[in-house]
Amino acid sequence: xxxxxxxxxxxxxxxxxxxxxxxxxxxxxxxxxxxxxxxxxxxxxxxxxxxxxxxxxxxxxxxxxxxxxxxxxxxxxxxxxxxxxxxxxxxxxxxxxxxxxxxxxxxxxxxxxxxxxxxxxxxxxxxxxxxxxxxxxxxxxxxxxxxxxxxxxxxxxxxxxxxxxxxxxxxxxxxxxxxxxxxxxxxxxxxxxxxxxxxxxxxxxxxxxxxxxxxxxxxxxxxxxxxxxxxxxxxxxxxxxxxxxxxxxxxxxx
Length: 254
What we know:
Elements: E1 2-4, H1 7-12, H2 18-40, E2 46-49, H3 61-76, E3 84-86, H4 94-98, H5 100-117, E4 124-129, E5 138-140, E6 143-145, H6 147-155, E7 162-166, H7 178-189, E8 197-203, H8 219-233, E9 239-245, H9 247-252
Parallel strand pairs: 1-2, 2-3, 3-4, 4-7, 7-8, 8-9
Antiparallel strand pairs: 5-6
Helix pairs in contact: 5-6
């Protein structure tokens, strides 16, 4: 389960003092209750947080605040987070449309620093998207490649890191559908020398174009399409499974 922990940042922004300390203890206790119960059921929990602008000047402190909090949480609790996952999608920024190279360079730089900073070896996961244009390349410290390939190289530096690929379609097979759209990234990540796992994400929310979401279908139909994705990539060295967004709309499917 990917547990959103954005609320910690509200606590971190409080003035130092007894009120902030009490809020931090209460939040950690609530998180521990959830993680402990999930672990008892054999479910791992990742700490998830992020915003599209977190690689932009003035906002880069937030991913490190989340990481340090997750590290401290793990050091004080028996039920621990498995990984820290970041949902940073810079391609949705207005600046991406006018100067995508600078936006993506800052993003790739942030990911490299996050990976290097992972001294506690919690493991870093990044949410990425089929929206990254494979025709575009940039150069980061002498390495030229697509944004996806540069992100892959960054995560490869430590074992256990992963990407969640937002591959939102409600049909698995066919041109322009889930399997086809993920094929290029899966092929890249499956090449020898790469260790990063790619988790293919599907959506159930009611806030997207109808062809991108399983909202209004059924659990059985979703399962049938997920089975096709599983089958298509079962022999891929990079395939790390399926993620479903979000839990409430998934549970509401008939």
